[in-house]
What does this fold into?
Amino acid sequence: MNRIPVAVLGATGTVGQQFVSLLDNHRQFRIVELVASPRNEGKRYKEACNWKLNHSVPDSIADMVVKTSDDPLSAPILFSGLDNSVAGPIEERYAHQGHVVISNASNHRMDPDVPLIIPEVNPDHFSLVRRQPYRGAIITNSNCSTMFLSMVLAPLKAAFGIKSIHVTTMQAISGAGYPGVPAMDILSNVIPYIAGEEEKMEQETQKILGSIGASGLEPARFPVSAQCNRVPVYDGHTETVVVDFETPDKPDIDRVREVLTEFRGLPQEKRLYSAPRQPIIVLDQNDRPQPRRDVYRDNGMVTFVGRLRRDPIGDIKMVVLGHNTIRGAAGASVLNAEAFIALDYFPV
Amino acid sequence: MNRIPVAVLGATGTVGQQFVSLLDNHRQFRIVELVASPRNEGKRYKEACNWKLNHSVPDSIADMVVKTSDDPLSAPILFSGLDNSVAGPIEERYAHQGHVVISNASNHRMDPDVPLIIPEVNPDHFSLVRRQPYRGAIITNSNCSTMFLSMVLAPLKAAFGIKSIHVTTMQAISGAGYPGVPAMDILSNVIPYIAGEEEKMEQETQKILGSIGASGLEPARFPVSAQCNRVPVYDGHTETVVVDFETPDKPDIDRVREVLTEFRGLPQEKRLYSAPRQPIIVLDQNDRPQPRRDVYRDNGMVTFVGRLRRDPIGDIKMVVLGHNTIRGAAGASVLNAEAFIALDYFPV
Amino acid sequence: MNRIPVAVLGATGTVGQQFVSLLDNHRQFRIVELVASPRNEGKRYKEACNWKLNHSVPDSIADMVVKTSDDPLSAPILFSGLDNSVAGPIEERYAHQGHVVISNASNHRMDPDVPLIIPEVNPDHFSLVRRQPYRGAIITNSNCSTMFLSMVLAPLKAAFGIKSIHVTTMQAISGAGYPGVPAMDILSNVIPYIAGEEEKMEQETQKILGSIGASGLEPARFPVSAQCNRVPVYDGHTETVVVDFETPDKPDIDRVREVLTEFRGLPQEKRLYSAPRQPIIVLDQNDRPQPRRDVYRDNGMVTFVGRLRRDPIGDIKMVVLGHNTIRGAAGASVLNAEAFIALDYFPV
Amino acid sequence: MNRIPVAVLGATGTVGQQFVSLLDNHRQFRIVELVASPRNEGKRYKEACNWKLNHSVPDSIADMVVKTSDDPLSAPILFSGLDNSVAGPIEERYAHQGHVVISNASNHRMDPDVPLIIPEVNPDHFSLVRRQPYRGAIITNSNCSTMFLSMVLAPLKAAFGIKSIHVTTMQAISGAGYPGVPAMDILSNVIPYIAGEEEKMEQETQKILGSIGASGLEPARFPVSAQCNRVPVYDGHTETVVVDFETPDKPDIDRVREVLTEFRGLPQEKRLYSAPRQPIIVLDQNDRPQPRRDVYRDNGMVTFVGRLRRDPIGDIKMVVLGHNTIRGAAGASVLNAEAFIALDYFPV
It folds into this structure.
């Protein structure tokens, strides 16, 4: 099979490194270009990059010379791990030039005609690209914390309707990129604030779980109350969630577990390369999921649910966990690209 | 002033060490007896105790010989830092013998005639001791996480009424005692479960904020939805809280801040020795309070509130923080003893 | 190929879990029996075991029923991850019964006729088993910190002779087993003491690098000054090492790097299943090796060297790193078994 | 007593904050000016400063308006917590203007006529200021790791002579300033490299323990082999040390302990305000000193020694610990100023 040439924007950053790692040996894609900031121009990737993952830089990519975002690119698909401070106009420019930009940056997520996709949840939102002004397209995935919450809410909404959501996150330091959080701020500490994160969780969740109508996307209406914290964990965002259902016939816990466990979507049906076999795994031990122990399983693409139980105010409460830089970032983008192709949107 | 002789039960444990530290040089109390498990019988305290605080064992106490709970005690007031696995019958026996047991253990907290006291909040509950079958008495303070939550809810309930509470905790390892949490379980990890903790928060909060009637204590009725987590923090429990008020006239944030800031209780009025000048301090920086940076201020006796803001579902959300082994445990007991004396319940 | 049936002693412990993980899908071995403490007798492995690794319990083993060390075993080869407090007599008994016990426990390491093996370094020491009084045999691997030090010293000794060694270790918490180090002792802390560790490093290194003569094993004579510390790291022991050579012609750093990099031994020559392609990897970045980033590479079987440079007192100094529960424990035992078979010592 | 007006240079940094904390309520000094980088010019200190200590900004200083290093200063004594990247010329300029600059920066430490002082060890080196070309003077204290090592070596050198030193450090993150070490680099990790640190330990130790002769300072000649590591500890540098003595009559451990314990210097004789009663405390428990538990005792001004024992190669080995931002930085400077005044060097 001929692999599609792709480029990685922001290739030396935390998310960019995950892109490089996930796309190495990918069945459908082949990295042909790496783009980083001007200070790295002309360097080999292994020199430009302060590699932070605990396996080596892939041999096939280590010596690739890094380009800058001023350079024209040949790859039709670009994966963007660009920082939000610069991503907006760069992604637009490349989309105007005809590239399909599969972006993890937040800049365009809430644009009305940019799909914010979880392929298991809302692949029909891809159709928004037809409304875009670009020769190419921009496709986004959600904020990492939003990803795991929306994944879990999707089957629950379909089965029982959602009235409201309370969520508190305990987020890993790798979610802040590198250098990111100073050690002096987080060692033996909790920072009860992450700029913009609560707003993203509240808005992006509504967009992802919204529906496509004649006039575009109609967001879901249930309110989300989010409180976001940084904790001294390397990888994995843990979330405590209370869900209040719309249905008057309150489901019992076994029924909720069944709905979550049996959930499947497009990536599973089409057997996409990066798809987890089962998007949501419910753990029954009372002290799981835990980021250190669970988040690396199944290539970091699974969303874990644990401590499923009745809530004294809402209907159920539970703990949700996912790998923030894989399923919550680079892995989400890669799966988005696979789904985009599987649905014959590409070439645009 | 003659200082009242006191004993510490469970003197070598994590809470016991805080008792020893807080009672050293106390204006009203003087430690005359230390009680620990039989394996330490006859040892000097400095040898019996694996001292974990970051200042030295007080000189006045280092060489005191440790007794066991089978020994008769001369001190009229006993501070109990006993582990829940043994505290129940030992505390009862001493109370029957005429001692006033000021306990941090959970065993008797929910007994109908045992007061569960925060002196700023419900000093009138001390009157329950008159219903006790003991020649002495048992007085308890709450679970550490409950302490900070109830402290904050008390003035809010008085001003606006409470309809419901959602709380998620991020609790320090020192709350589990020693040896407590294995490092392999918590380094770079979150454990989303603490046995019995959620139930304690849900029930103890209702008891503390309940009212004394002719037939005894009537618990408050608002439901509490609690989700408790252990995080890699040494001292300080952080809690994210959403409060829904009863009052139809929703207060604005400035009014809520004012109510919290101006809250004072018996310890402040009577200028009790261990009382913080201001029981609740509201911080305005958007990333505070933080356990490492705030929890040691004002001798660990203050409850901090931060990130006070409107909630999309309930009325307000905020972050609450307190020192779990001081205000949430040993310091709470010591302040209870001071209040008990100030209200002339002692000698019983 | 018929796989040899093996058993794991101490199968539920930290090292035992690594045995289970490494032996699952092993080309030569097949786990047929799991032995744990009496309190787990009759339980399925997945229930008996508090599994701590960040992948799942292998399916093939999850439901195996756990035996106790009183039970007779059918497997000819037993891997022992038993705790030192019980390993001694149990291993002896099984060896008398005819089993080959490949042990990670320290009890028999210094027995004169028990080989203490690193297959790259001293495979000729296997011949000591002929002096053993057992129908079977006991084969041991070294203490984890000793492993990485001895691996690095072996080629240096061959090339330049060793006059003396100064080593300071910074050891991971997983080296202390589970529950092991209490979090209250190690969070944001260093414990400058590990019971027995310095003596092991000083003595085991001399035995491993010793030579076999007519009268048995003659230990190497160079003195080792070891200082062992526990640090808040999950996996991976880091060691700072100063080496003083015997040779009067002091080698330059490039020559030392070459000697380390080109070192190969029996496992590489025989292409043993668990052998790293290259036993020692020298890293050139000035801030490597680092436990979190390097220790999981190459299946945890490599010893890393970094910061190779001249020393103002001895000849060279460097940093050494290895995975303490894999190459430093279970992986070492598995490789020992593979080497034992490759050298036709098995069946005994 | 009239307190001498002083200024703090680099007042908002990690060391600057410790200066502010230590000088608040100081018996001899009164902060009248705070100097920070131009971006903070004109701000109040509490706004300019991202305060990181776990008590509050002193009230007396919180509202002081911050100056820049271009401003003329009125205080005769300046405490410099400036970063090395800028300290050199700024300190020189102020010294030329007549100020006494008491500096923690490394820039001028190795200048031949700049004294590098530990008041307990080499107060006679203050006389070097007479050789300086400044109307004022520059006085420096050592690198933090050097401080604790030199303190311990001073009495040992006097008693037994020093032949050589091997030292490995495990250094706290607060030693790297703020933002300093990224959390992604140090959580559950060791970084076996700190730029320039080993050279500083090797050279500064020789200067401090050198002697003043007719032609200036003659450094001590014994070689120091240093290996420096960063570990996930908030405050406190731990060092493993092997000392080889010159004396042919090797002292026993009790004699070494006695020499260390009985060591006193100028700060103790003159009862200087910031002086610890005893500069070196030897701990006898086999797992001490530990940074989290010991480093905050006695106001962070003590150097702790533990695990004093014979070494198989050199004469003794031991563990050394001190508070890197107090005794190892700001507290060292403050004590230097007190000693400078006590010896009547001031006013210059």
